[in-house]
Write a structure and sequence with these properties.
Blueprint lengths: L2 E14 L3 E8 L3 E7 L18 E7 L5 E10 L1 H5 L3 H17 L8 H16 L4 H16 L19 E3 L4 E3 L15 H10 L2 H6 L2 H19 L15 H19 L1
Parallel strand pairs: 3-5
Antiparallel strand pairs: 1-2, 1-4, 2-3, 4-5, 6-7
Helix pairs in contact: 2-3, 2-4, 3-4, 4-5, 4-7, 5-7
Length: about 260
């Protein structure tokens, strides 16, 4: 019997028998691990609530013949408590976990950068300081960079000519110049690709200044690019609510009130 310990994010759970579950974890040192949590579906379980999706845990396991077995779990961050109370953040977090599960295809292969991206995205969603849609888009762009699928944003995806370029083509790999532009390319707003660049590199001042139509367009390009190169549709992405953040609505209301007051005067 070989014991080992690591920190991990719980990606998903599956029922096993009458009282057990198979827990899929993304660990810091060992990559994706599938392990059995015995008896966690019983009301007397010591750590059943600690191995739910979105949990960031310190976990001890021992190596089994087919699946490893969880023996101890301690909570590092209870992200799920804040996330599940808000449907928009919940659906965004589900998309984060599904993307991680798809990209970490090989079990036991270390993917430290992907682990850190997942923890950072869940922490941002739980903290509620930023728009959940933008947190998700930033995560997806960085996850694609990890996988080698990062879209070209500042140069032509085909010839490498420096931009900015007016067209974007998912199959070509991102922004394309007028010479290389294939049929079926889209022409996004002039502010959309700079927004995607800002999200990729963590320029939140620029990202948060973007208006709602530009945010929605960027989200659409990010999702299309990810699913094209992943060669499958993520089940959670269509459920993600792409709404204008409350702060933007409040500012718009304030501006309208100020404008009305100035008009009356």
């Amino acid at each position: 019997m070989s014991l080992y310990r690591d920190t991990a994010v719980v990606l998903r759970v599956q029922k096993l028998g009458e009282a057990d579950r198979i827990i899929t974890l993304l660990t810091r040192r060992y990559g994706k691990v599938r392990a059995v949590a015995k008896g966690v579906r019983r009301t007397t379980s010591r750590f059943g609530a600690r191995v739910e999706p979105f949990c960031h845990v310190d976990v001890q396991l021992y190596t089994g013949r087919t699946l490893d077995v969880i023996t101890q779990v301690q909570t590092v961050d209870a992200f799920g408590v804040q996330i599940v109370e808000d449907y928009q953040r919940y659906t965004a977090a589900c998309a984060v976990l599904e993307t991680v599960d798809r990209l970490a295809a090989e079990e036991g292969e270390p993917v430290l950068r992907l682990y850190l991206l997942a923890v950072g995205a869940l922490r941002a969603l739980a903290g509620r300081d930023r728009d959940s849609s933008q947190v998700l888009d930033a995560f997806l762009l960085r996850a694609m960079s990890f996988a080698g699928w990062s879209p070209a944003l500042t140069e032509c995806a085909r010839c490498g000519q420096s931009g900015p370029h007016a067209a974007f083509n998912v199959q070509a790999g991102g922004a394309v110049c007028t010479t290389c532009r294939p049929a079926g390319s889209v022409r996004p707003s002039a502010l959309t690709l700079p927004l995607m660049e800002a999200l990729l590199h963590g320029d939140w001042d620029t990202a948060e200044a973007a208006v709602a139509p530009v945010r929605r367009e960027a989200s659409g390009l990010v999702a299309a690019h990810l699913q094209w190169y992943m060669e499958r549709q993520l089940r959670s992405l269509p459920l993600v609510e792409r709404t204008v953040p409350e702060l933007i609505r409040e500012r718009a209301s304030e501006a309208a009130l100020v404008g009305a007051a100035e008009g009356d005067s």
